[in-house]
Amino acid sequence: MRILITGGAGFVPSSLADVLLTNSAIDVVLVDNFLTGRKENIPLHPRCRFIKCDVNNYNEIAPVFSAFGFDYVFHYAAVVGVKRTLDNPVMVLNDIQGIKNVLDLSKSTGVKRIFFSSSSEVYGEPVHLPQHEHTTPLNSRLPYAVVKNVGESFCRSYQQEFNLDFTLFRFFNTYGPKQSPDFVVARFIDAALAGKEITVYGDGQQTRTFCYIDDNAEACINALTQNLFVNDVVNVGNDKAITVLELAQTIIRLTNSSSKIVHLPPLPEGDMTRRQPDIQNMKQLLKRDFTSLEDGLQRIITLRTK
Ligand SMILES: NC(=O)c1ccc[n+]([C@@H]2O[C@H](COP(=O)([O-])OP(=O)(O)OC[C@H]3O[C@@H](n4cnc5c(N)ncnc54)[C@H](O)[C@@H]3O)[C@@H](O)[C@H]2O)c1
Prior knowledge:
single chain; alpha/beta; Rossmann fold; UDP-galactose 4-epimerase, domain 1; 2 domains; about 40% helix
């Protein structure tokens, strides 16, 4: 089985590759333009190939599809990060071209199913909690969320017109060892281990749920191997909510740190007050208990202090 993962030098995509490569029947090809990806994330493995390429550029990505003939594609490449996406809205919107390229090339080269990394951001400011795939309205407003919404719509439309099967993963906050330091968990852990101030936007009472990367990767792989959520959408996340302030306090406790928590002015936009997935569908994918936040944080701290 040959699988393409776009954004393969990134946190979630490279962690997915690590797990896929434990199956000897799977060959993995990763593409990335290193916008936020890092070389050290790319698995060094005989069944893993890496190609530097921009998926938004048809001339770069088309030869990759024709050279390999993929069975499945995980389209995970995207401009990410609250600040980066707010500061570069046009660059974010250009990702629509990458989605089209990947769908067109998947359709014309016989890909069996495409897995698209959508986001909890498509729900926008929550109307009700927990957020359910089919009953919660999508209030996407910011370019990042609009692109994810458009991507979902493209997947549904290619299925309708061209029979290209899809699964939409709406990822909620995911964390793990390979995450880049600009995201909240990695940022707090790095600051705590260095004994530096931990900075929180606003009063820190905004709640978040955090899904450990192993749970995300296992759920997504089960969708493929167990033929689940074909032509459907599924929240991939953990529903246990914690405030950002409590997260900072937990990390200080687990690292035994002397760091102080410092409050910054709230972000002007993009910092949702609450998000929480309805996980009834996610439970069908994971079929085991979630990794607890403390266990997940501890695994990262152990790796960082080795
Ligand atoms: N991590 C989360 O909590 C989370 C939550 C919701 C959605 N997502 C989605 O999951 C996916 C992976 O996110 P991540 O957190 O691992 O971020 P990441 O930045 O670590 O990974 C994204 C990767 O895509 C690459 N990339 C960006 N534009 C590209 C392009 N045009 N061509 C080729 N490569 C390109 C980047 O260099 C990076 O390596 C993204 O689609 C993101 O929107 C992640």
